[in-house]
Amino acid sequence: MTERSVGMAIRSTSLLACPFCGDDEPMEGEPDETAIGLLYNVHCRVCTCMLDGFTSQRAANRAWNKRPANNSITDIDAAERQNTKGD
């Protein structure tokens, strides 16, 4: 993981591409100072989706990189199409 620079967003080499638009350069945002301490986020610079509210950058990165099992969406779509064929 890259080192954090204070006051600017940086790209982490450990982040997967955006799960929505596929952009391969998501960014670690600058942490937000809140009443409960610093909260960290990861966001897409293209479609602007964001995961935020994590108590460490590592936790935010792990959440960003978490993906459903391979083909789970495709399997659901195929099952729905199969169910509607008889209608």
Notes on the structure:
The protein is α+β, with helices and mostly antiparallel strands and about 90 residues long. It has one domain (about 1-85). The protein is built from two helices and four strands, in the order ββββαα. The chain has helices spanning about 55-65, 70-85, and strands at about 25-30, 30-35, 35-45, 50-55. Strands 1, 2, 3 and 4 form a four-stranded antiparallel sheet that branches. β2 (about 30-35) and β3 form a beta hairpin. It is elongated. The relative contact order is 0.17.
Quick structural overview:
With 87 residues, the chain is of the alpha+beta class. It has helices at residues 57-65, 72-84, and strands at residues 27-28, 32-34, 37-43, 50-54. The chain has one domain (1-87).
Mean pLDDT: 79
What is the helix content? Answer: 25-40%
Number of domains: 1
- Strand percent estimate: 15-25%
Q: Decide which structural class fits the backbone.
A: alpha+beta
- Quaternary: single chain
Radius of gyration, Cα only, in angstroms?
Answer: 17 Å
Shape: elongated
Give the count of helical stretches. Answer: 2
- Helix-strand topology string: EEEEHH
Low-confidence spans: pLDDT under 50, at least 5 residues?
1-8
Number of DSSP E strands: 4
Summarize the biggest pleated sheet.
4 strands, antiparallel
- N- to C-terminal distance: 51 Å
Topology summary:
Layout lengths: L26 E2 L3 E3 L2 E7 L6 E5 L2 H9 L6 H13 L3
Antiparallel strand pairs: 1-3, 2-3, 3-4
